[in-house]
Amino acid sequence: MSYLETVFDVATPQHGIFAVFQLIDRGIPRGSLDNLLKNNHFFKLDRGIFQVKSFDSTWRSRAIVEVLHCGPRALLSHESALINSGLLTEKFVSFRQRIPIPFHVTLPRSSNRRTSLSLHRSIYKHPFSRREIVNGIPQVPLEVAIIESAMHLPPSILASVIDEAIRKEMTCNQKIISALESVSPAPGRSKARVEEIIKFYLHVDNEIKNVDSALEVRVLRQIKNVFNGKIALQQAVVANRNHYRIDIALLEKKIAIEVDGFQFHRCRNIFDDDRKRQNDLVLSGWTVLRFTASQSDQEIREAISRSVGRDIPTRNS
Questions:
Q1: How far apart are the first and last CA of the chain?
Q2: What string of DSSP letters covers 50-72?
Q3: Could you tell me the domains of the chain?
Q4: With a threshold of 0.85, does the pTM exceed it?
Q5: pLDDT tens for each residue of 127-138
Q6: Contact status, residue 211 vs residue 217, Cβ threshold 8 Å
Q7: Residue 108 and residue 221: Cα distance in Å, rounded?
């Protein structure tokens, strides 16, 4: 393989980005680098970082520039790793101290480099300090990214991230708990607080794979906080001689809980059918509760608590 072919072999899976130290690691002599990098196929982005001209600039190409700029042992981390893993959208903006952070990067625990709001030092020892290549970018393990982000994500988004990761079998309850147990104390981060936040979102792990959406998991989680009876998912019922399925049913209380996702109300026929369905259920003795993604966890808990006759919990959403 020629030196030029080696450059393309390094850059192609990295969205057209490569670092000089990567070429040296691949055996290209330092003396040959100057002439090679003058090739009109490349342009310089930063000290020691180049891009192949035929590649467009994307979120992931910019992310790997940030990682490579921090050296060979740097890893994409925190919310940025969740974006790269497809659990947050590229439009998601991470904030620290009210300052937007485009990319988070983590260095090894042994690094002496000064940290910042966007540059971090690893909170783990082996094995959770390992690197993973996701979409061509070296990043921290997914469990680590979830834990690192836990104190900075709104509860509904954190719940959605964990639920989606488990549903897609990208991780599991036990892996996240194992990573939690390996967290070391650090300024500004209480290990106990992180454990409290994360474990609250893990206690319905077995049900997550049996529901249709992250919103349903949110609702299911709030139900379990206030109701100890039998919960049926996608319960078949007959009301006014019509056959229906209820998203979540509390059978002993005859409470039907419907979760209205993004598609709800988009079609007039669906809207009309849904109103007939709700009337049939109510006339057959069911109490019908409806929840949408715009409602907070606290609002959901309060509605369920009133319906089952429990005192309203005071836990913050």
A1: 57
A2: EEETTSPP-HHHHHHHHHHHT-T
A3: 3-57 (1.10.10.10), 60-207 (no CATH), 213-308 (3.40.960.10)
A4: no
A5: 556 789 999 999
A6: yes
A7: 36
